[in-house]
# Entry
Amino acid sequence: MRDVFDALLDTVFPPACIACEAWLPADSPGAFCSSCHDEIQLVRPPFCPRCGRPYRHDWQADHLCGGCLLQPPAFSMARSWGCYPRESDVTHPLRQVIHRFKYGRQASLGKPLGRLMAQACQPWEPASGFDLIIPVPLHPRRLRWRGFNQSVLLGREVGRAWRIPIDPFILTRKTETAPQSTLSLRERGPNVRGAFVIAPGRAVARMGVLLVDDIYTSGATLNECTRVLLRAGAGEVRALTLARTVS
Ligand SMILES: [Zn+2]
Ligand SMILES: [Zn+2]
# Structure
């Protein structure tokens, strides 16, 4: 029923690029027009099989990155749809759209962005082995400011596409931490340590969990959430983000 309604809406309001608002052809596969899409660097192999960090040169084979060799993350695997543009690249379509989503509080972007995320990991056979999607929680104060948790909106679309239930109430953020983006990479781990707890009475024992967040930067937030879930008995935790920084 929902699909019929969506199709009807598309006829009345033809879909537009979520970045530049150019009209999209009816058979357009994605949310971005082709010229905006061309500017976005997708995360593709070769990459680190653990944290999903892509390597610049096509001739390299997949191999663990230095960070994962030195200090393996708690999650077994992380993947992302696109590379997050550099700070200086302020007009980049992906940066603009994520900014409007998170700071312009444009909740309607959750759906097209979540669909892109769901497409991101086809070779990963994403639907296998997951019992539950858990979005990275926001502190209630930030949730009140934004009016929605961007990770819940993204996770909902991934769950719809892959037919995995989502539970945004299992994991909660008990302390308000400084935004990771304001800290150095070294400060990010300690900043989120102890920030998350499992809600009383919720169980994750032996479950295959897919953690969903908007941006992977240092991996510290996803790592801390994973530690809490594994301590509560989760079987395996993998992570999926819309974008990831590539340093
Ligand atoms: Zn565009
Ligand atoms: Zn790695």
Q: What stands out?
A: The chain has a mean pLDDT of 90. The pocket of zinc ion (ligand 1) is lined by residues 17, 19-20, 22, 32-33, 35-36 (CB under 6 Å). The radius of gyration is 18 Å.
